[in-house]
Amino acid sequence: MNYSQLSFKDTLGLSTEELQRSLLKLLLGMHELAQEAGEASREIVPTPISAITPKDHNKALEIWRSDGLPMLPTLPGRPCPACEAETSHAVFESYDGYTFHECQRCGTWYVPLGVTWDLFARLFEKSPAAAAVAKDVASQRRSQLEDQDLSRFLRYLAAVMPLLPEREGSLRYLDIGCNVGHSLQAAKSVGILAHGVEVDPYPGEIARREGHTVVRFLEDLPPGNYDIISFWETLEHIADPLAELQLASSRLAEGGLLVFTVPNLMALGLRLLREKCTYAYGGFNSPGHINFFSKRSIALLLDRAGLSLINVDYEYSNMGVELAGYLQGGIDPAQPFSILSPPKHLSDFVNGIWPIITMIESTMGTLPMMQCIACHKGSEPLFAGKLAEKTQAAAANIREQAIARLKESPDPASLLEAMKEELQKRDDHVAMRIYRRIEKIRTSLQSLFRKPRTS
Ligand SMILES: [Zn+2]
Predict the structure, then answer these.
(1) Above 60 in pLDDT, residue 438?
(2) Is residue 23 within 8 Å of 353, Cβ to Cβ?
(3) Taking residues 76-86, what's their average pLDDT?
(4) Which pLDDT score, from 0 to 100, does residue 317 have?
(5) Cα–Cα distance between 283 and 275 in angstroms, integer?
(6) Which of 38, 257, 307, 315 is deepest in the core (most CB within 10 A)?
(7) Model confidence at 397, in pLDDT bands (50, 70, 90)?
(8) Cα(389) to centroid of ligand 1, in Å?
């Protein structure tokens, strides 16, 4: 949705001056806390690493460095995945040893190598330990992330289904990169016929054991078209996303929608942290995030596949404390994830204002994930009316919620409670971490709000 048309006055019923005054109050409170806290200690900021535990993560990285990394020079090169331009320049080397480039034509960040499953098939053959970690990661996802995945996929599907034209019978859904099959489980639970494609053999096997129809390659599916085709956090892992999107487009029913989530190149965290960014990696036990698209470059890629980008929403949140710690130089160059938090009073302040920064960032389009909706070129008018309604309804809803919260919840405890509910609804594990930190300083915040220093 597009919030950028709304001013703070429209959205929150607050003037810029009123917002500035609130921020200054918080800043004064921070200095009060700093005096109480005395000499502050700094600790390593915990960073989430998807479904993999930090222990497995380090183990996989170690195996990769000794057995996998020397194979990189054997990989073929590739042009920009979005626009196919050959001219690019290096921007950073990731912690797992890949050089990321920036396309000089469209700005996409990418690994200019054909990183595919073949590389990891070769690695697993050479190193049974590497194969064992990959297998563990797949079963960790099945056992630990089921609830989180299900509500995330139900939320995504619920956002798309009302946009589709009326049709007879059940909707037909295809998820490409379905992992252990949680997306298929979610779709079936609301009466949708669901098929999946998963090239990674371990999670694919788990999905089939659960009774889902999952093939390794799109070409292996029986003929037929789908009303919804999704790529949830998948396009960033594919060496030739154009070919994959063209295939998907050929399987999309007339009046169907292609939906996907993909990391945002314009995310504040990625652009600032670069080689220190947890999710900027080329792949140490599966193809990593080898493509970072912006809204502009994803539109370009879709266009080349005969598709049209008709809506982008942004989600999740950049980690304010991590960014502040990094910018203060709290890093150890030898360790990938050793960003030190800023001193406690500053962390508290950053955590205190970050939910508001996140709202501003959703307006700016700099949150870490893009939720995109596309259709066949020429089908745009089919969805225009419903999309406009959706955008208007969402903006009105945010405005009402914000105003109600400001009027009815003057105390910080209930504001934090409301924030927690909001985060749980979004299944945002990064933001939940931030929330837990804020919860720790709830007492300090309460005293802060009780005795404001300015008026
Ligand atoms: Zn390009």
Answers:
(1) no
(2) yes
(3) 98
(4) 85
(5) 13
(6) 257
(7) confident
(8) 33
Closest to 193 in 3D by CA, of 213, 226, 171? 171
Q: What's the 318 CA to ligand 1 centre distance in angstroms?
A: 25
Cα–ligand 1 centroid distance for 108 (angstroms)? 5
Query: What's the CA-to-centroid distance between 253 and ligand 1, angstroms?
Result: 29
Give the DSSP letter string of 198-252. Answer: --SHHHHHHHHHTT-EEESSGGGSPS--EEEEEEET-GGG-S-HHHHHHHHHHTE
| Cα(105) to centroid(ligand 1), Å | 5
Checking DSSP bridges between strand 109-110 and strand 172-176, what pairing results, if any? unpaired
CA of 313 to the centre of ligand 1 (A): 22
Ligand 1 centroid to 2 CA: how many Å? Answer: 25
Placement of tokens 């309460």 in the chain: 446
**Phi/psi of residue 223, nearest 5 degrees:** -60, 155
Which domains, ranges and CATH numbers included, belong to the chain?
Answer: 54-316+370-383 (3.40.50.150)
> How far away, in angstroms, is 9 Cα from ligand 1 center?
39
**Class of residue 192 by CB neighbours under 10 A (exposed 0-12, middle 13-18, buried 19+):** middle
Cα(323) to ligand 1 centroid in Å equals 27
Q: How far apart are the CA of 216 and the centre of ligand 1, in A?
A: 28
Residue linked to tokens 């609804």: 425
Q: Pairing relation of β-strands 99-103 and 88-93?
A: antiparallel
Mean pLDDT value across residues 275-300: 95
Cα 298 to ligand 1 centroid, rounded to whole Å: 10
- Tell how far the Cα of 232 is from the centroid of ligand 1, in angstroms: 22
- Give the model confidence (pLDDT) of 11-55 as tens digits: 555 677 777 777 777 777 667 666 666 555 678 877 666 667 778
Report the sign of the C-alpha dihedral through residues 268, 271, 277, 280, in that order: positive
Residues 6+ apart with CB under 8 A from 169: none
Cα dist from 258 to 126, 379, 384, whole Å: 38, 12, 15
Residue 47 CA, ligand 1 centroid: distance in Å: 30
Q: Are 176 and 244 in contact (CB under 8 A)?
A: yes
How far is ligand 1, taken at its centre, from the CA of residue 270, in Å?
Answer: 18
Query: pLDDT, tens digit, for every residue of 234-252?
Result: 999 999 999 999 999 999 9
pLDDT the model gives residue 208: 97
Q: Per the structure block, which two tokens stand in for 43? A: 């600790």
How does residue 97 score in pLDDT terms, banded at 50, 70 and 90?
very high
